[in-house]
Write a structure and sequence with these properties.
Layout: H1 2-12, E1 21-24, H2 30-39, H3 42-45, H4 55-66, E2 77-80
Parallel strand pairs: 1-2
């Protein structure tokens, strides 16, 4: 996804099209809650900001990237994961 995001952003930038990606961590959506139940509390224990994110937090980043305020941003991958370091 990283290479696709960057390559596509470069390919279509001259047409005024921006391409960015959001890579969320554990989010308390229906799927995220099932993951926490299946794996256990250790899934969120290592998140520096103290637990899973909320869907609204991811949505705010998406709304920003879709807005004119992000007109100069393309080819970026945003990890919205509470500060998890690694993969």
């Amino acid at each position: 996804m990283n290479a696709l995001t960057r390559t596509l952003a470069n390919e279509v930038a001259s047409r005024g099209i921006r391409v960015n990606a959001i890579a969320p961590g554990v989010v308390l959506s229906d799927m995220g809650e099932r993951m926490v139940k299946a794996v256990g509390p250790q899934l969120v224990a290592g998140i520096p900001l103290g637990g899973a994110g909320q869907p609204e937090e991811i949505a705010k980043v998406a709304a920003f990237l879709a807005s004119d305020d992000a007109a100069w941003i393309t080819g970026k991958i945003y990890r919205i994961d509470g500060g998890v370091v690694g993969v």
